[in-house]
């Protein structure tokens, strides 16, 4: 009697599939890389010359935010992958395999996070070097924070893919979600200078939490003790929602 595959082996297969998907889309790597370098060496450099605040270096502040915003953008791609797999008939096949839907959502979220981290790993090393904190502790700690954030963003993208039926509508919603998570945060703008009406939302944003934690590691900027808790809650919430909506859509005939 053959043994059923373990949860770890199933997770590895799901992660490996997502890694291959990113490799098959080189235009994503090229476009995001170009955008990152433009942000870092054009926008941040120019604005740093305009900003004159004693004790504040905008280039260092923005460099961390550029990495965080880039990995957020990459992690959102996983939802679009689900729609493509549905059109090809692959999603129905994957969901018919003998493992739980929660494991499927967790595996896909991890897959989206792993490929986003691999893509952004060189960027984080470059930023740590430019900011003068290229140490194993700073880089490895930053990788952990980026991975947790990317897992939560992937879960959010999967949840939206399960809720929205129309792919064109999903493209619009995912673009708005990506814009909101990055812009309504302290990733690229200091929280103090963000319009007061959106400061409360920016303060609790997981992108803000990730940016603050990495600035603590790379720049030594003080931060609160609750940022890592916020990131963990963010991952847990959208992992649970993704599983729930996947089950509801399957029961309700999501994949006709």
Summary, kept brief:
By secondary structure, this protein is mainly α. The protein has one domain.
Structural class: mainly alpha
The share of residues in helices is over 70%
Our Rg estimate from Cα atoms comes to 19 Å
- Gap from first CA to last CA: 35 Å
Largest sheet: none
How much is the average pLDDT? 80
- β-strand percent reads under 5%
Q: Structurally, how many domains make up the residues?
A: 1
The rough form would be described as globular
Order of helices and strands: HHHHHHHHHHH
**Unreliable stretches, pLDDT < 50, 5 or more residues?**
none
How many H/I helical runs? Answer: 11
Task: Give a count of the beta strands, DSSP E runs of length 2 or more.
Answer: 0
Please describe what this structure looks like:
The protein is mainly alpha-helical and 256 residues long. It has one domain. The chain is 77% helix and 0% strand. It has eleven helices and no strands. The mean pLDDT is 80.
Walk me through the topology.
Elements: H1 7-23, H2 26-50, H3 58-75, H4 77-88, H5 90-96, H6 101-130, H7 136-163, H8 167-183, H9 199-203, H10 206-218, H11 227-251
Descriptors:
256 residues, mainly alpha, 77% helix
